[in-house]
Amino acid sequence: MTSLANVVGSATRRYPPRIWMLILLTALVAVSVVSLLIGAGEVGPQRVLGLLQGSQDSDAHFVVWELRAPRTLIGIVVGIALGVAGALLQAVSRNPLAEPGLLGVSAGAAFAVALALVLGASAATLRISVAQLGALMGCVCVLSVARFRGVGNDPVRLVLAGAAFSGLLGSLSSLILLYDQRAADEIRFWVIGSLAGRRLDDLLAVLPSLLVAGIVIVVMARPLAALALGERAASGLGHRPGLIRWMAVGCVALLVGAATAIAGPIAFVGLVVPFVARAFAGPDIRRTLWFCLPIGPLIVLTADIISRVVVAPSELPLGVLTALCGAPVLIAVVRAKRLPML
Amino acid sequence: MANNPSLGGVATPLNEAAQEDGVPPPNGYWLVAWPLGGYSVLLEKRAVVVNAGLLIALLVACLLYLSLGSVPLAPSAVIAAVIGKGDMMTAFMVQELRLPRLVAACFTGAAFALAGVLMQTLARNRLATPGIIGIDNGATAFAVASIVGMGVSIAPPAMALAGATTAAVLTFGLAAGSGTQGYRFIVAGIGVGAVFGAITQLLLARVAIDTANAAYPWTVGSLNARPGGAVQLLGIGLALGLIAALALARSLTLLRFKDATASGLGVSVKARRLQVLMLSVILTAFAVAVAGPVGMVALIGPEIARSLSSARHVPIVASLLSGALVMLLADLAGRTLFAPIEIPVGIVTAVVGGPWLLWILMRPQRSHS
After folding, report:
1. pTM value?
2. Of A161, A268, A328, the CB nearest to B361
3. Would an 8 Å CB–CB cutoff place A156 in contact with chain B?
């Protein structure tokens, strides 16, 4: 198990990255189709296939196009956002364990939303900017802790600080929810972290900020790769490490805030996706970011499909499944003989 | 170390019992001689004072705990009710409603803190409390399984014990390569805890919403839902655990040093480690069976005890007392602060303990005891 990364790495080197990219994209398409076919309710694969062949089945039509299709789209977007955010955060903090959920960024977003709801906001549209603001605060808090007295030099201590921080914010959120019944009713199902019952409007509302983040990341990719060589090398190549770092933090906040606003706090995706992507792409951050694009949705959608099937007819929160598959990765990274410094 | 002349211990008047034997007790200690059989024990003066102070504080907190609530009572009426006098209504309220909860709070707080100080000493890391390395979550997951009735009708304490043991074996097994020291061990524990937390959610998602709602306050740590018999079991476990911990006290003091030093001083390190770990796991499991995961008490209690005590010994009794004190005050705050709404004690301790944990993490590292 110590050599999990090595095993994955040697398996991935059998084909060039281009081929892998194709394979992953094919897998993503397949998983998306499966996500349309399978659900917790009565509309099974046969009825959906019949619908696609042109039968008149209004129930199936509603379930597939009004429920499952938006859900699949949202899963893809959330997967991309969380995976890319994880890769960015890990590159910036040079820490393979840095994960938005573990470090308290998602908890910050959730806390901000809970606070806003208690202070009287009720519109769902407000949620996104509030969540992004909270994610930014969480990011800044954790990274300033990391720069404080050498905590950041030890990847593992940073995780501990993040766990403490998200534990604190989590209990503050539940305190607020206990105090305010109305807010509790509004956000009870959101705070668990799930793709179920989210509307396409939410997705449209976050698209602009995701677009902004995407453009910034494209601009920033080269400086980020230079930063991986060390601060001095990066400044020698004409980049400004401080600026790059803050831009990356801003992007992480935009991405995680958007994902959290739609789907609630989902942990461990930002850890697993870059971990797998690095196995495909090697140390180059630019290639890793490309590989995060198919891998993130692949993992989130697979987890979502499983969450519909395991406890049918009810559903499992997505965060439960991502934790179940993410925690072993966390342990594997920690167990590695030498913690890889990014 | 104790006889360091620079501490000015030259002119100390000698204790009578010691004069008979001709050996003066070390500076800062009392020698208490047993009249029969020639046994004697050294008591550290500071420890005695600290423990007495904590005990008084605990008694005052108990009185407060019994008096405050939805119906405030006068302290004199409470004392009368406890010894069985006073009017029926007050006696009922104190003896049937508040006293059992008080006992549960004291026992769980003491057990969590004792388990915490044992685990911290074992791992030589003040952050390695059972809650942080996933043992609380393991116990919770298994106990929730028995409570929500997954076809398993075993009592919660037994299930909690099974869960805590599983989590401990997983954490220590997975961290085996990197040793029990350092932060990697703790992060492995965080991973194990996350898995068990997810399992708890999974179990709750499978049952009817009413059952899940009933189990919810218990999964964040609350004294509301106390399974019958669990408190008694915890009381027995706590008494035996305290005796065992005191019997292990000498070894615990030496376990704080390196393995080589400890075994050189006559401690069989491996055996003692295993005993301390088992003790900590059992105490945590029984406490979780009563109140759910209130793991922060295991961090705060020993921390208070250490700041009050000298660094010569592992403050076992002081941790136990301050743990009970913290739990009492936290539950009191949860019951009274936002009066009609009751805040589960687990949330109160998490809100207080989270910043504390961060502060410990960011503080310059003086020592790892």
Report:
1. 0.81
2. A161
3. yes
